[in-house]
Amino acid sequence: MENLADILKISIPALLVLLTAWLSLRYLMKNDQDKRRQELVLQGTRIVTPIKLQAYERIVLFLERISLESMLVRISSPGMSASQLHSALLTTIRSEFEHNLSQQIYMSPQAWEVVRNARSNMIKIINSESEKMPENASGMDLGKRLLESVMELDKEPTRAAIDYIKGEVGRMI
Fold first, then answer.
1. How many CA atoms lie within 13 A of 141 on its CB side?
2. Alpha carbons 30 and 28: distance in angstroms, whole number
3. 80 touches 138 (CB < 8 A)
4. Which DSSP state fits 103?
5. For the purposes of burial, counting CB atoms within 10 Å of the CB of 117, is it exposed (0-12), middle (13-18) or buried (19 or more)?
6. Does the pTM of the predicted model rise above 0.90?
7. What is the pLDDT of residues 15-32, one digit of tens each?
8. Are 116 and 96 within 8 A, CB to CB?
9. Distant-in-sequence contacts of 36-40, Cβ < 8 A, 24+ apart
10. pLDDT of 62-117, one tens digit each?
């Protein structure tokens, strides 16, 4: 019986020390894992944030390039008919959009939807005003009509989208 008491006197403190050491090591390892996970997230953020900002920059550039004023200055030429200008405007919007399609990966779904709506609204404005033009109208006539219709709006669709994108980038930074 005395031997059992001696064994318990040695075993119980040893088990308490073992349990304390095991709990301490477990706590330290968990903290180390958490720190590493946070470092990885931070490192990922350092890499992804500049890419996201570049995507937003490219989308703002896209929106600027498909604004009516910008397109008319770049595309319109003196001898163009209204139908030629109409076709050139739509081709420009589509090609610019296709060129920037991959940027949606880095944008929020709401921001990308705003960009898509701006593009669709620009196409609707162009199609709507083009349909109202007589068959023999010049490109200058269509351009003038397009600018007038955009001026009647509170905000050009591309300008509203740019403002939204700027707000989202402001919240991101």
1. 13
2. 5
3. yes
4. G
5. middle
6. no
7. 999 999 999 999 999 999
8. no
9. none
10. 999 999 999 999 999 989 999 999 999 999 999 999 999 999 999 999 999 999 99
Burial of residue 129, with CB atoms counted within 10 A of its CB: 0-12 exposed, 13-18 middle, 19 or more buried: buried
Contact 162, 64 (CB under 8 A): yes
Q: Which two tokens stand for residue 97?
A: 């959009």
19-23, long-range: CB < 8 A, 24+ apart: none
Which sequence spans correspond to the domains of the chain?
48-172
- Helix 109-131 crosses helix 68-75 at what angle (to 10 degrees)? 60
Dist CA 13 CA 111 (whole Å): 63
CA atoms in the 13 A half-sphere facing the CB of 7: 4
User: Which residues does 122 contact at the CB level (< 8 Å), separation at least 6?
Assistant: 66, 67, 68, 93, 157, 158
* Helix (H/G/I), strand (E/B), else coil: 100: coil
Contact (Cβ atoms closer than 8 angstroms) between residue 162 and residue 125: no
